[in-house]
Amino acid sequence: MKKLLIITRDFPPYEGRGGVMRILKFAAYLPEFGWKASIFCEKKGVTGDNSLRKEIDGKAEVIPVAWKSPSQQKNYHKERLNAPDVSTIQKVHSLSYRSLYFNLLMSYHNYFMAPDLHWPWAQQTIEHALNLHKDRSFDALLTSGPPFSTFRAGIEIQKSTQLPLALDFRDGWWKNPLYKNWKKKFIDAQNRLLEKQAVSVAGLALFVSDPLTEIYQKRYPAAQCRMRTLENGFDSNDFKEISSPNDTKTDTLNFIFCGSVGGRRDPGPFLSAVEQIKKDFPEWAENVRISFVGRFRGDKEGWKKRLGNMLEITGEVNHEKAIRYMTAADILVLITHASEGGKTVMSGKIYEYAALRKPILAVAHECAATDFIRKYNAGFVVGYEKIDVITSMLKTIIGMWKEGEEFPRIGRETLRLYERKRLAGILGGELDKLIEQLSPRRVR
Q1: Does residue 243 or residue 375 have the better pLDDT?
Q2: pLDDT higher than 60, residue 440
């Protein structure tokens, strides 16, 4: 069995978001293709979905690396100031950290530290990974970002070990509009150089969507032959106890969104359109339900008051429960904004939506996700910001449902392309080719 070293920040018990699920499923299925992973991730003191770890029991090794971010350290010193058993000197130290050192540290992080605020964690990970390599002698190294401190760590580890390096771009790095609000000129210049360096030393670069691959092929034409798209997908084992969609019409049309909303991904335009439907067609209010499953950062009480029984907000649930909620949907809702990555946005959730073969309503700017829905006739697409246009789309969908018209549905043959096991097999094959091509350069 060949040995793969993986550096990624996000891994269970983080909640089952796209970056978590991608690496988790690779690790679960790679042994079937001759690879076993040792995964370095961030040790987080948060509750999450611990059930996901069971999927890799005996299949992969997980090495969490702990660190305290400046904000976590600030909270620690805040608690220490109020603790009864802390000395005056210790309290003065904590007060100094909160009032002076924290601000200086955050200024350094925000204006000078590249690629991102996770570089101190990545530096610790480099040390642990190099020590483990001396003991295990890995065959290849894969780093997954964002955050792209994992890629900078990959550069350093590759430099010391000459391990074949694969980069897994779950999002764009330099020039990504998602990061434009915090990137400063000095950091931006560093990120440009670091990205170029990472691509130049990597023997393989993977991207989650074709638009993202095309951007990097144009940016680094000399490395085109080492780039390929490897999409996210769904695991059929997660759905094995779930029956096929029930075509029997019920008395309620259920719209369900699974994931996190708030900030850039504002549910406001969509919910405002629902509110308009309620005003224009009050008789429909008893037959339409909108459910948000996951983290909801916004005016929960305000929206509940405005929409009444039409709206349900469940809060965060584990991955298994989220799938069961999705199963109850008639329409699965996807909300994205251009600032999340522009044309390259391709939510990992869309593949699990598609796996249920239920129509997807994408409330989104034009992006890879909307291209996917149109290409495979997987649902409906409507622009993100124009409430009247969203309202019109909702009227169309509700009208189709009332008339018993068939909703669009992705084909079964298409779904097979996005099976997690198949995608892990592609990754295993690419890693095999990588070590064959670069084996003369390797130093153990």
Answers
A1: 375
A2: no
Q: How far apart are CA 127 and CA 66, in angstroms?
A: 13
CA-wise closest residue to 139 among 352, 440, 432: 432
d(CA 263, CA 353): 23
Helices (DSSP H) in 137-286: which residue ranges?
A: 149-161, 185-201, 210-219, 268-280
Question: pLDDT digits over 76-131, tens only?
Answer: 667 766 777 777 777 666 667 666 666 776 777 777 788 988 899 999 999 999 99
Query: Are residues 183 and 152 in contact, defined by beta-carbon separation less than 8 angstroms?
Result: no
According to DSSP, residue 328 is labeled: T
Q: Which two tokens stand for residue 402?
A: 């009332």
Q: In this structure, are residues 232 and 351 in contact, taking their beta carbons and an 8 Å threshold?
A: yes
Determine whether 89 is exposed, middle or buried from the number of CB atoms within 10 Å of its CB (0-12, 13-18, 19+).
exposed
pLDDT exceeds 90 at position 175: no
Measured over all CA atoms, what is the biggest interatomic distance in the chain, rounded to whole angstroms?
Answer: 74
Q: How far is CA 56 from CA 29, 53, 73, 441, in A?
A: 9, 6, 32, 32
Is the pLDDT score of 222 beyond 80?
yes
What does the pLDDT look like over 304-324, one tens digit per residue? 999 999 999 999 888 888 999
Say which residue the tokens 């092929």 belong to: 217
Q: Rounded to 5 degrees, what are φ and ψ at 326?
A: -60, -35
What does 21-71 look like in DSSP terms, one character per residue?
Answer: HHHHHHHHHGGGGTEEEEEEEEE--S---GGGGGGGTTTEEEEEEE---HH
The residue type at 227: M
Whole-number Cα distances in Å, 136 to 2, 9, 31: 11, 21, 17
pLDDT tens digits, 43-88? 876 555 667 888 899 999 999 998 877 776 667 667 766 777 777 7
Beta bridge partners of 339: none
CA 85 to chain centre: 42
Q: Is residue 114 within 8 Å of 194, Cβ to Cβ?
A: yes
128/157 Cα distance (integer angstroms): 10
Range list of β-strands (E), 230-372: 253-258, 288-293, 311-315, 331-335, 360-363
Could you tell me what percent of the chain has a pLDDT over 90? 64
CA–CA separation, 396 and 53 (whole Å):
42
| Tokens describing residue 161 | 């070990």
- CA–CA separation, 311 and 293 (whole Å): 11
Q: Where are the alpha helices (DSSP H) in 45-164?
A: 70-81, 88-96, 102-111, 119-136, 149-161
